[in-house]
Amino acid sequence: MSFITKSAVSLPVLSSKIFQCLGFLNYTVTRRYSNQKHHSYDIVVIGGGIVGSASARELILRHPSLKIAIVEKENRFACHQSGNNSGVIHAGIYYKPGSLKAKLCVEGLNLSYQYLDKKGIKYSKCGKLIVATQRSEVPRLLDLYDRGVKNGVKDIKLLDSKEMRELEPNCRGLEALWSPHTGIVDWGEVTNSYVKDFEECGGKSYLNFEVTKFIESEGAEYPVILNSSKGDKIEAKYVLTCCGLQSDTVAVLTGCPEEPKIIPFRGEYLYLKPNKSKIAKANIYPVPDPRFPFLGVHLTPKIDGRVIVGPNAILAFCKEGYRWGDVNMKELREIIRFSGFQRMALKYASFGLKEMSRSLIMPLQVMQIQKYIQNITSADVERGPAGVRAQAMAKDGTLIEDFVFDSQPGSGAIGSRVLHCRNAPSPGATSSLAIAKMIADKMEEEFKL
């Protein structure tokens, strides 16, 4: 990049100065692609999803004198989990009181609304109803209420059936839990806003840069070299990885163990047809069944005005498998051979078969939503979007629901200078700004920034 001097006043320079005054130049010129051959940075963040982008932003806000870059293997940010989700801003009801997930979610919700207001990003604080449709679900609903209160979730309250219908006339149930501060937003837009903040603070971002190898450099100042699939190189003093679906693959490249392994679960949604889009204003969820690791089929209004129903939860045949036809035989063999997956598959065999059936036969998924909104039929829905969840799993088949960080400090310069965020569990998007603070704290502690 050339520097502009006072003597070099030309039409292109004048245009650049005008755009810089408008705040656009820094955003456009700092986004680099993988044809950049050789650059050196104090910190490189691998992964352009919402956690990686938020963490890069937090690091450069704290340390503006450091040279920091973020690299992403796709041609845009928020390409996977961060841009393919229901868009819910969660309030923190579900999580064990005192847990890190609960703390980060409640803090993250408050930080998210402050950020969205500051940036003028469109959102809706439409609220959430969690509905008990059977007597057996009422004790679990009361437990959720108790959890929410202990977690500091604001203004939640229990409703009887009459109060529930006053909020949502089409909803049916015995009792419900109302969370007025649950909202919806486009988390992909939020991710790109984080990246823009990062770039405007002087950070550099690289798209189409898939890290395939870590090499120890002979130079003492920048001891870690990141090699891309296209042969490009970036030197770094320190590296943070936030790679979501590919987090285990990238961690193994630096000598870390395979576990926790990422098992991809696809969640498929149905769209309500436009003539049914006014059937509910709020998010409407069932009471989750504690026997299973997912929240169940729910109804969610989107920020674009459409309404989605779902998701199911089925094994994806590759880490980025958004359709039945997306198959990577190498990844699929690794999943099937993994002892943790085999144990989980046996434990949840019946549940898994039902989920696969709902994927293939839409009326079966519609039946799930009819438990609390009876006047939706199969004629009212059509195929919608899908996302893939990166589910971290242990060898014994346990689904890991907490944060996992990893490094190999005894394995030379690379192991001692790379921190892997191997699991940032749901609600990662809602919690992203709070997670970023925690990760920046950990980077400062580990690497004495």
Automatic annotation (TrEMBL):
The keyword Oxidoreductase applies. One of its GO terms (molecular function) is (S)-2-hydroxyglutarate dehydrogenase activity. Its EC number is 1.1.99.2. This is L-2-hydroxyglutarate dehydrogenase, mitochondrial. Belongs to the L2HGDH family. It comes from Papilio xuthus. It catalyses: (S)-2-hydroxyglutarate + A = 2-oxoglutarate + AH2. It comes from the Eukaryota. The lineage of its organism: Eukaryota, Metazoa, Ecdysozoa, Arthropoda, Hexapoda. Residues 42-441 form the FAD dependent oxidoreductase domain. It is an enzyme of class 1 (oxidoreductase). Its cofactor is FAD. InterPro entries: FAD-dep_OxRdtase, FAD/NAD-bd_sf. Keywords: FAD, Flavoprotein, Oxidoreductase.
